[in-house]
Amino acid sequence: MNKTLLPQTFIDFISPYLPESENLQDFIQSCSTPLRKSIRVNTLKVELEAFKAKAISKGWELTPIPWCETGFWLNRPQAEEDSVSLGNTVEHLTGQFYIQEASSMLPPQALAFNNSINVALDVASAPGSKTTQLAALMNNQGVILANEYSSSRVKVLAANIQRCGVNNTAITHMDGRLLEHLTETFDSILLDAPCSGEGTVRKDPDSMKNWTEKSVHEIAETQFELIQAAFKALKVGGTLIYSTCTLNPYENQNICLKLQQMFPEQIEFESLANLFEGAGECTTKEGFLHVWPQIYDSEGFFVARIKKIQAITAPETIDNPFKKLGKFPYQAISKKSQTSLKEYLSKQFGCDNFPFEACYQRNDDIWYFPPAFETLKGKLKFSRVGVRIAELAKHGVKPDHALAINFSHLFTKQKIELDKSAAEQYLKGQDIDMNVSELAKGEIVVTIQNQALGFAKNLTDRLKNQLPRDLVRDNVKL
């Protein structure tokens, strides 16, 4: 091992593939340099210019990321760095930005480039950076099938989707190879494939400790199976983005070229040389982006954009698990339930424009489903769809936490702005002593920086905390 934590076997392996315009020592030196912090502003929660103004007032230095209008490298004052972690800032806790490596913003941008997205698939979506970025690019319209194979990561995915105010996702938990059975279903697909992670050593110094050339070829086999499945699920005329955070050609160019060899009449590679100013510096002859860490002082990344120009008739390679799904357990909201919820929202929050046409019901639970969900209904089994709104209990409506996070911008009353001290109490799960007699009794939305934190119940002389226990942060310091 050398000081960069790159095994010499890896350096010997990768050096022949370094572009002629790049220097091996520059690459090694770059890998030994700590990664710059970067964030992506979440325009589902805050307007870009408003966030930039807020950042300036806080003394934050934002350096634009060339390929993402809402992405920035971030420098904070040292005193703030020492006292408050970036993840504990008000802006992060309320979903106004996502802590996301700059290079990982490339795949969603490449998918949205000159492309109208309506029914999208994110094959390997946890922890949610690219799913939430896609949702913002789609302005919460259409639908995103957010799939994740790892059960331990599905919960993190769901939490980030909720924090960012995303409404247009349906979450599934399955092996991405099974998605081949959703033949020609999606107009846009993002496959950020599991990989050997050769481009991530600046973020994770241990990422290359167990690297072997054998493991590269083993994971490439899985990647090829995944890209085949994704291509089968893509509509004719649709766009597939294949990306990795690794550097070798076996997991990158070769996967795409092998797919082209399999479907020569159906595939067209679309160049990404014009994705952003200067993209040509890292564009291969096929039009793929191959970002080495030293080019933009970022992680290493690979991105290919593939167009499906003809239908394929390839046979299914694995048994179809979606043949016998049973009856879909949700129904369109009943008139009675809609009336009850409509009256509650109007009386309690002055909300008279809730999108009930997108609401579904399962027993007493009411859900908001993505605008284009009908396209996917009945085709596969879901872990979670859309946003849980409320429960119609015997003694009235019980609003769900997500109703505040995702839809309180539609409320015209029953909101109260907290200062940092009170917001800390709320996030710690504590009740807040304060006189709120000017507001009606019952549920109110507590906010900070005009961003919803959740619900509390107005008891006149105090606010009874209704933050879900799994969201309580005992050590939060704003």
TrEMBL record:
CDD domains: AdoMet_MTases
Record: residues binding S-adenosyl-L-methionine: 124-130, 148, 175, 192
GO molecular function term, any single one: rRNA (cytosine-C5-)-methyltransferase activity
Main EC class the enzyme belongs to: transferase
Reaction catalysis annotation: cytidine(1407) in 16S rRNA + S-adenosyl-L-methionine = 5-methylcytidine(1407) in 16S rRNA + S-adenosyl-L-homocysteine + H(+)
Principal location listed in the UniProt entry: cytoplasm
EC numbers: 2.1.1.178
Subcellular location: Cytoplasm
Presence of keyword S-adenosyl-L-methionine: yes
One GO term of the biological process aspect: rRNA base methylation
SUPFAM superfamilies: S-adenosyl-L-methionine-dependent methyltransferases
UniProt entry keywords in alphabetical sequence: Cytoplasm, Methyltransferase, RNA-binding, rRNA processing, S-adenosyl-L-methionine, Transferase
Keyword NADP recorded: no
One GO CC term on file: cytoplasm
Residue stretches making up the SAM-dependent MTase RsmB/NOP-type domain: 27-309
PROSITE patterns to which the protein is assigned, alphabetical: SAM_MT_RSMB_NOP
Catalytic-site annotation from UniProt: 245 (nucleophile)
General function of this protein: Specifically methylates the cytosine at position 1407 (m5C1407) of 16S rRNA.
Similarity remark: Belongs to the class I-like SAM-binding methyltransferase superfamily. RsmB/NOP family.
Name by which UniProt lists this protein: Ribosomal RNA small subunit methyltransferase F
Source species of the chain: Catenovulum maritimum
